Amino acid sequence: MLSLNEALDRAQSLVAAARRAGADAADAVYGCDASSGVSVRLGELEDVERSESEHIGLRAFVGHRSATVSSSDLAPRTLETLVERVIAMAKEAPEDSYAGLAPEDRLMKKKQPSLDIEDADEPDPALLRARALEAEESARSVTGVTNSEGAGASFGRAQIALATSHGFAGAYAGTSHSIWASVIAGQDAAMQRDYASHNARHLRDIEDPEAVGARAGARAVARLNPSRIPSGPLPIIFDPRIGNSLIGHLLGAIAGPTVARKASFLLDRKGELVLPRELSVIDDPHRQRGLRSRPFDGEGLPTAQSRLIDEGVLVDWLLDSASARQLGLAPTGHATRGGGSPGVGATNVHLEGGTASPRELMSDVKRGLYVTELIGHGVNPVTGDYSRGASGFLIEDGAICCAVAEVTIAGNLKDMFANLVAANDLQFRYAINVPTLRIDGMTLAGE
């Protein structure tokens, strides 16, 4: 793995070589991922792995034509060939008036913000094994747990360096720690499984393995003896660990490339009410130790906190430079980057504005469903039609009771968002964070 300074020097050298070879503009991105992990099952070591990969991608423009190539071989001779190949490809590519580097006057010029996303200490395999064993032992000790799918602990480090021919150069690194456990409760055809996990940038922020395991075991046991319930319209309440998928669908619908293709169910809704007035969706790339925090985007633009939905109103799309040009707008600092051309994505996202407790949220529900797991991908991003398999727990007279499985919940995301009610139990555990959510008017298909 190259150091950050070495990676940035390699990217800048590649851009300079592309310009000398005839490119009108170019950018290069270096990425490296290194990870180690240990998994156990039934108290025995099952797997120890260590992986490391690095790549560099070069994008070159010749007029309005462009091409991108990448390589995992960083040897000087290989990079020379990379430059020759990308220039030749760019000359033969079709013209695209929307393609190009980010506007020079919008590039990040200031010092990178300190985000505290890199942990200097790397745990050794012995520590990872001990944490995995502790999580599994805790899960298996829960009464009713009969088997284990395993537990694990891991550590990862990623580095990114980006250089452009019009003046941007930057690099950063981030780390991740994780712990998980997955167990089975019951016997034979009555078996049920569930899991628990936690991820954090720093080891000292990661949840105690015993707590993760205990939660996995309790969840699996709670799902025993599920029933199916009659079909019909019911209030649906989403647990925070799966409710964030709803905001994921919203983010996909406001992505610039999707809007430019006219493939979004929120097309033409910018500036309009899409959520209830009390709710807002915030994107915060500068959250300290955030799982998706980053100082600059995939094109070298500065990142900043933004209110994607402000008091229910859709404020803006997520735009990279190409989709911004296509829509006649300015890029928003949401470009993402792998080894190829930029894409679009949000960072640390959360929904805020809920005032009721989860208990109050369901207190008037005579009969409803508390969803803890969603299955399948039955979502149409163009129309917003939503239909997914679900399991969870029946709500009767405002209280959660028996387990429910093998049902389907359906609706349309436009209506679902308009009827969304949020609780006040927001916690920051994931890349997308939501409190407990309630949606009335959905249809449940059961017996």
UniProtKB/TrEMBL annotation:
Pfam entry (one): PmbA_TldD_3rd
Molecular functions per Gene Ontology: metallopeptidase activity
Location of the Metalloprotease TldD/E central domain: 119-224
Transmembrane segments: none
Residue ranges constituting the Metalloprotease TldD/E C-terminal domain according to the UniProt record: 232-446
InterPro entries: Metalloprtase-TldD/E_C (IPR045569), Metalloprtase-TldD/E_cen_dom (IPR045570), Metalloprtase-TldD/E_N (IPR002510), PmbA (IPR047657), TldD/PmbA_N (IPR035068), TldD/PmbA_sf (IPR036059)
GO biological process annotation, one example: proteolysis
GO annotation, cellular component aspect: cytosol
Family per similarity comment: Belongs to the peptidase U62 family.
Protein name per Swiss-Prot or TrEMBL: TldD/PmbA family protein
